[in-house]
Amino acid sequence: MPEENIDEDAPILAIAVAAELAGMHPQTLRQYDRLGLVVPARTQGGSRRYSLRHVAQLREVARLSVGGMSLPAIARILDLEDQVRTLRRQVVELEQRLRAETSQRPGARVFAAGASGAVVTLRRGTRVRRATDVVLWRPRQWVEVDVDEDDEPLRDPDRP
C-alpha cells in the first residue's frame, strides 16, 4: 500500500502498539493523555486509539523533554503545530476553490486595488504590475448617491 494513501489521523493503534512505536512505556502515554499533551481518540468501550500523527507527537514530546523543555511548553508547541496544520489545510482548500471559481467564470470582470486602495475595474487583457503586498479590504457602507440625468454621480458638497 503506497504511503501517501495512509491517513495519518486515523485512530487505529492500541496503546501498547503506540507506546512501542514511540519508544515509551504505556503508562507514560496515559499520563500524557491525562495532562492533555497527546490526547488519543476513544473507542465506544473507552479504550485509547492512537494515530500515526499521535505517535509522531509522542516522539516529538520525548525529544523536547530530553532537551529540557517543560511539559506545558511542549503542550503549547503541539497546539501551535496543530493550528498551523489546520491553517495550511484551509489555504489549500481556498486555493482550490479560487482555481475552480476562476475556471468556471472565464469571462468574469477583473478588479484590482488602485494606489489609493480604491477598487478599479480592469478591461479584459489589461495587465497590472504585480505586487506582493497584503492588503486588508473592508467593504464600505453603501451610501445612496444622487445622479444626474446621464447617471453620473453628483458631487457631494460636504466631501472634498
Low-confidence stretches: none
Structural class: mainly alpha
Beta-strand segment tally: 4
Query: Oligomer, anyone?
Result: single chain
How helix-rich are the residues, as a percent range?
40-55%
Gyration radius from CA atoms, angstroms: 27 Å
Q: How are helices and strands ordered from N to C?
A: HHEEHHEE
Largest sheet: 2 strands, antiparallel
Determine the N-to-C terminus distance.
69 Å
Widest β-sheet, arrangement of strands = 1-2
Strand content: 5-15%
The average pLDDT score comes to 82
| Contiguous helical run count | 4
The shape, in one word, is elongated
Q: What layout of secondary structure does this protein have?
A:
Elements: H1 15-22, H2 26-35, E1 41-42, E2 48-49, H3 52-66, H4 71-104, E3 110-113, E4 119-122
Helix pairs in contact: 1-2, 1-3, 3-4
Describe, in plain words, how this protein is organized in 3D.
The chain is mainly alpha-helical and 160 residues long. It has helices spanning 15-22, 26-35, 52-66, 71-104, and strands at 41-42, 48-49, 110-113, 119-122. The protein is built from four helices and four strands; from the N terminus they run ααββααββ. It has a two-stranded antiparallel ribbon. A two-stranded antiparallel sheet has the order 3-4. The mean pLDDT is 82.
